[in-house]
Amino acid sequence: MSDKNKNEHIENAPDYKALKVNSGISKPPSINPRIADRLKMKKRKKHTVDDFVKGILDGNMAILSQAITLVESAKFEHQKIAQEIIERCLPHSGKSTRIGITGVPGAGKSTFIEAFGKHVTSMGHKLAVLAIDPSSERTKGSILGDKTRMEELAVDPHAYIRPSPSAGSLGGVARKTRESLILCEAAGFDTILIETVGVGQSETAVHSMVDFFLLIQIAGAGDELQGIKRGIMEMADAIAINKCDGSNVTKAQLARVQFENALHLFPLSPSQWSPKVLTCSSIEKKGVDDIWNTIMDYCKHTFENGYFDNRRSEQAKYWMYETINEQLRDNFYHDNVIKNMIPDFETKVLNDEMSSFIAAYKLLNTYYDQVKNKE
Amino acid sequence: MSDKNKNEHIENAPDYKALKVNSGISKPPSINPRIADRLKMKKRKKHTVDDFVKGILDGNMAILSQAITLVESAKFEHQKIAQEIIERCLPHSGKSTRIGITGVPGAGKSTFIEAFGKHVTSMGHKLAVLAIDPSSERTKGSILGDKTRMEELAVDPHAYIRPSPSAGSLGGVARKTRESLILCEAAGFDTILIETVGVGQSETAVHSMVDFFLLIQIAGAGDELQGIKRGIMEMADAIAINKCDGSNVTKAQLARVQFENALHLFPLSPSQWSPKVLTCSSIEKKGVDDIWNTIMDYCKHTFENGYFDNRRSEQAKYWMYETINEQLRDNFYHDNVIKNMIPDFETKVLNDEMSSFIAAYKLLNTYYDQVKNKE
After folding, report:
1. B12 is in which domain, residue-wise?
2. pLDDT value, residue B134
3. I want to staple B202 with a disulfide (CB 3.0 to 4.6 A). Which of A65, A115, A241, B196 is the partner?
4. Residue B358 sits in the same domain as residue B262
């Protein structure tokens, strides 16, 4: 219904005379149209792929940020440039320690990353902090978005903080983060932190792109594991009991013992590394160095037994297949005809009117007919 | 190379005179050709879909078996009939208790199923035992294939034992088992056991088609969890410590306490059911009734809180999507052009000569071109 019709409707309604709305005038533009045109022209001056690659290899943070923006863009032309940049940066990537960090909200991940990050840069390392948080679109609450919690690190010239790409499926978000990781490495960052929230499937995605996986926990009343999703503890190469300060010290040390006992129940991972449990205080900056040393021990251990390189190779392969599988699904479920058919088929399956398999095959046949008839 | 050429090759080789092979005469057929023809003619008398559906609903085990053979067949025409049969049986299915059973080899699953099955049929229930064991093709070692371990149950007129479909991917094998389950229910079986080996991904498949998941364990020397894959214990609605007999009783009871403690570390599942740990002896047929009662308690509990029906619906939906996703992958990876391209692309990705994503997209583009050009 247009605005005009709406007004007529109200005017014609005898009981609603008080609601009579005069038709207004159009609002003037909030920006001088000439300036807007000039701004658009300015935007059009784009970097070439060469500019991007050179900028990234020179460690130019502004160019790196713009390249990552292209990686995160959903536009086809941006993706095309992004993929070229990644391809050219690939030979310069791989020379970093990739660390995954997770923990439930409230475990103090931001303050931990601040303390840990400052420790890392103080040793002369260059640190990039990325994130995978597919919930951030909904909640707008990506922890890294809130840089105020990382005041010192945010202004550290040897640190680069990039919030989670906010749009798309988990697979898409994870892919973008892994591509950004490659660009950060090419830009000279030798330590990459990838942060996520310990409440979902995103841990698996992070786990499949890092060398070391750190779980941040806090001491509770015996139910430390309740907050964390099933399976996440089994991925951890180390658990850090955070907030081990003030009146919390005894509780944190007790939690440490409990976690150590629990970890013994799990079979040893193929890395032949037995996960460590440590305590730390992000506020008092205590124990953060131990965590760094543990990561270095782990790298040495897995370098020596060959697991480090094997895993990197397996991860590259994994992402090839994962991208294929995700794209196959994406193409199917985003097909307009399929999208319209699915709700009805789902209802029939739920009501036992159609078997799951027949529903699947009918949808698949329709889909492949679609593909064949497309230009 | 034909046999004739092979012989020529040997005859022409001057150094291998001792190997000279006289060309033999063709072997007579091992079966009288006329009888073979008659047998073939007999085979050609096929049941119609109506025959199958009527036979199944009448509880005719021979017809049920033939229908399951069609379900398991890879032939297109068999699949077509099978799908029609399933569709017609679907309204008569769903009225059974579906129980998944897993445990590492050596835990005594076969003897347990024998004892448990006899208990179930002695109460007047009709029991079907199916299996998912994707390894059976390789090892020819499907436990259910070895019916000699279930002597009593194999001849019980109220029990039907069907070994695991032996060909295909896990997804394919699982799909076939779920379809067979529907036919068994339509044939009047009110208790379905689906058995699998606790060493891989097949547990997830079984878990997604049963109401109750039982893990069979045995007492060991404190490392009870070592044999079982990560994540499987978290799926269990009950753990049965088997072989609690003779000199093993104390150890089994200790193991029971250890498992109970370990289970407390996991968060409660959405069913709001806290997993039970029980001991039993399949040989002495002790504790088997407790396990049956526990399953009944579980069903009552989840009927009342609505979880039972919700989960069945979720499973039907899951299998629709799972079938679609699996078929999309299957079509892609079985495409001949793609099959030939993948090894080279994989090598390039492993050697960092190509990014995982570019490799994926190049393969995908080739694939969709293939699909469009196919008849």
Report:
1. 3-45
2. 63
3. B196
4. no
Residue that is last in its domain, among A302, A323, A344? A302
Query: Is the per-residue pLDDT at B189 higher than 80?
Result: yes
Q: Do residues B329 and A328 touch, judged by C-beta distance below 8 A?
A: yes
> Among residues of chain B, what percentage have pLDDT more than 70?
79
Tokens of A224: 């430390």
pLDDT at A214: 95
Check pLDDT > 60 for residue B136: no
> Do B110 and B212 share a domain, yes or no?
yes
Tokens of A368: 């492949």
Same domain? B97 vs B217: yes
CB contact (8 A) between residue B368 and residue A371:
yes
Q: Which residues in chain B (267-296) have CB-CB distances under 8 A to chain A? A: 267
Check whether residue B257 and residue B352 sit in a common domain.
no
| Structural domain includes residue A285 | yes
Q: Is B372–A372 a contact, with Cβ atoms under 8 angstroms apart? A: yes
More confident position, B263 or A334: A334
* A299 close to A331: Cβ distance less than 8 angstroms: no
- State residue B16's pLDDT score: 46
Q: Indicate whether A351 and A225 sit together in one domain.
A: no
CB contact under 8 A, B91 and A352: yes
B115 lies in the same domain as B225: yes
In chain B, which residues have their Cβ closer than 8 Å to the Cβ of A368?
331, 371
Residue B268 covered by a domain = yes
Give the whole-angstrom CA distance, residue A275 versus residue A237: 5
Mean pLDDT, rounded, for A52-57: 96
Dig out the tokens for A49 from the structure: 């792929």
Distance CA B276, CA A209 (A): 37
As for how many domains chain B has, the answer is 4
Tokens for A23, please give them.
Answer: 């038709």
What percent of chain A is modeled with pLDDT above 70?
A: 79
Hey, is the C-beta of A355 within 8 angstroms of any chain B C-beta?
yes
pLDDT at A133 over 90: no
ipTM of the complex: 0.71
**In the prediction, which pLDDT does B28 show?**
64
Average predicted confidence (pLDDT) for chain A:
82
What's the CATH number where A141 sits? 3.40.50.300
Cα separations in angstroms, A119 against A244, A281, A285, A365:
18, 13, 9, 57
CATH number of the CATH domain containing B61? 1.20.5.170
| Long-range contacts, B270-274 (Cβ 8 Å, 24+) | B270/B307, B271/B237, B271/B298, B271/B301, B271/B302, B271/B305, B271/B307, B271/B311, B272/B301, B272/B305, B272/B307, B273/B237, B273/B298, B273/B301, B273/B302, B273/B307
User: Which residue would you say has higher pLDDT here, B290 or B73?
Assistant: B290
- Report d(CA A205, CA B32) in Å as an integer: 62
Chain-chain contact of B355 with A90 (C-beta, under 8 angstroms): yes
Judgement on whether residues B21 and B83 belong to the same structural domain of the protein: no
